[in-house]
């Protein structure tokens, strides 16, 4: 059974940093992070292949966010730096078999999300 559990969200000031974690059990997946702000559509943030040779980022987070994985711990991370108020959203971890893709409908498994609020 596949389970994805996100953690690490919270309140942070603009310019600050936060690291999200996703514990992913049940397979050797390509992993993605997506986010959804109130009243907006779900947005692709980043993805990483299995076992980790390829990464892909959304334009709005390039140069600020880094996705990585520790396969021994079945965990994927999203390191978020230089956070902006517009990064405020619920962040979701997702998993799929196959190549890295930014298309949310191609991810089969989803976590419940962890909220991130960037505010002073």
Give a description of the structure.
The structure is a single chain. With 120 residues, this protein is mostly beta strands. The chain contains no helices and eleven strands. The protein has strands spanning 3-7, 10-12, 18-25, 30-36, 43-48, 55-57, 65-70, 75-80, 89-96, 109-110, 114-118. Strands 2, 4, 5, 6, 9, 10 and 11 form a seven-stranded mixed sheet that branches. It has a four-stranded antiparallel sheet with strand order 1-3-8-7, with no helix packed on it. It is globular, with a radius of gyration of 13 Å. It starts with a strand and ends with a strand.
Task: Offer a few descriptive terms.
four-stranded antiparallel β-sheet; single chain; 120 residues; mainly beta; seven-stranded mixed β-sheet
**Mean pLDDT across every amino acid position:** 96
Which structural class do the helices and strands define? mainly beta
What is the succession of H and E elements? Answer: EEEEEEEEEEE
Number of strands: 11
Percent in helix: under 10%
**Low-confidence stretches at least 5 residues in length (pLDDT < 50)?**
none
Radius of gyration (CA) equals: 13 Å
């Amino acid at each position: 059974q596949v389970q994805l559990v996100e953690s690490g969200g919270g309140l942070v000031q603009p310019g600050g940093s936060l690291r999200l974690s996703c514990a992913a059990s049940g397979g050797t997946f390509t992993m993605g992070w997506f986010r959804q702000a109130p009243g907006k559509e779900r947005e692709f943030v980043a993805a990483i292949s299995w076992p980790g040779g390829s990464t892909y980022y959304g334009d709005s987070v390039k140069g600020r966010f880094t996705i990585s994985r520790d396969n021994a711990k079945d965990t994927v991370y999203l390191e978020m730096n230089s956070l902006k108020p517009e990064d405020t959203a619920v962040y979701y971890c997702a998993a799929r078999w196959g190549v890295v893709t930014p298309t949310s409908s191609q991810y089969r498994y989803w976590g419940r999300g962890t909220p991130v609020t960037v505010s002073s």
